[in-house]
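Work Package 3 committed the consortium to producing structural models of liganded targets before the mid-term review. Because experimental data for this complex are still outstanding, the team generated a predictive model from sequence and the ligand definition alone, so that downstream docking and mutagenesis planning could proceed in parallel. The input record is reproduced below exactly as it was submitted to the modelling pipeline, together with the SMILES string for pyridoxal-5'-phosphate.
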Amino acid sequence: MKKQTQAIHTSYHRPDPYGALSVPIYHAVAYEFPDAQEMSDAFCGRIDAPDYSRVENPTVTHFEHRVKALTGAEDVIAFNSGMAAISNAMMALTQSGRKLLSSRHLFGNTFSLLTQTLSRFGVGTKLCDLTDLEAVRQAVDDSVCCIFLEIVTNPQLEVADLKALAAVARERGIPLVADTTAIPFTQFSAKELGVDIEIVSSTKYISGGATSLGGLIIDYGRFPAFRQRIRFEMLFNLGAYMTPQAAYMQTLGLETLDARYRVQAQNAQTLAERLTTLEPIRHVNYIGLPTNAYYSLAREQFGPTSGAMLTIELADREACFRFINRLQLIHRATNLFDNRTLAIHPASTIFGNFPPHQRARMGVSDSVVRISVGLEAVDDLFADIRQALS
Ligand SMILES: *Cc1c(COP(=O)(O)O)cnc(C)c1O
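The resulting structure, written out as tokens with the ligand in place, is given here.
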């Protein structure tokens, strides 16, 4: 089956007594057993049965099962936010005295997780330019326990060569961990590009209209101890498993994910092309524009679509604020890949608490507005942007 079919037809793995077509929401904490032996078997993992919803819930299991079918993963574990998935993965991969190798171009909270929170526990982070393979080779020494990156960085829209990074990781026997939130897994295979552990904020494209928070760890099984640690240590001890309501909404989101994404990506492509004609815009950054530095690599890795995030550069911060204030249709909001188009000034919001010199080193410019393109008619979006600039 093709992925679009699989997303809808991967069936519920236990029969529902009423034959419900959509997955039931098991709003339950605990599960009863017929006798003490079966209870012991469930608790000790000898049989596959849920015992407590902090670590397993049938509705969440179904959601995980569908993502597993779509990605060909060894295991998929769902968390209650993208940050929960990232922090749990990091807690499982590292320990005091070890280091993570990553870049300065990271989602703001991920950057602060690595450089502040984890550093208090003795975990170091080496930051280097992950598009510079020589720099990566130099940085990977015996202390480094994984390479972590985002496939299209936000808001810089930088793309690293995943196959090349995977080769470096393989040489060293360490996992390549990729946050793939920017392009859905229905469009490309991170596994085939050499990613060992994929992480997704399912809050974004998957939830379908920003209905719920969620995160996924998609494990391709090359480091078996990792999966064990997530399932049998992190879920139990950190307690960040997805809720059944979120899993229900995100299962529905998964069914329309590819259809929604195709429209959003097409809208973003058309809009990016048309915005290059508007006088006050100094630069349009979108990886789907043939003039973009990452265009070829992005095509090679992710296929013919380029995501729904673009940025525009105006004269300065004041011009960005004036533009954002005059928008009538496009919403002033954070979040990415909602059904609605959203605009934000990253430097004063998501990165607003970083000192200016650090923002500059992170490639977050004061004169850039980020636009997450939704499902509206692209003519309406273009008209709103043009009037806001006029
Ligand atoms: C939003 C986002 C996150 C965090 O996800 P939440 O679900 O908001 O916790 C992590 N990485 C990327 C690339 C994101 O866009």
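Reviewers should note the following from the model. The chain is about 40% helix and 15% strand. These observations will guide the Year 2 experiments.
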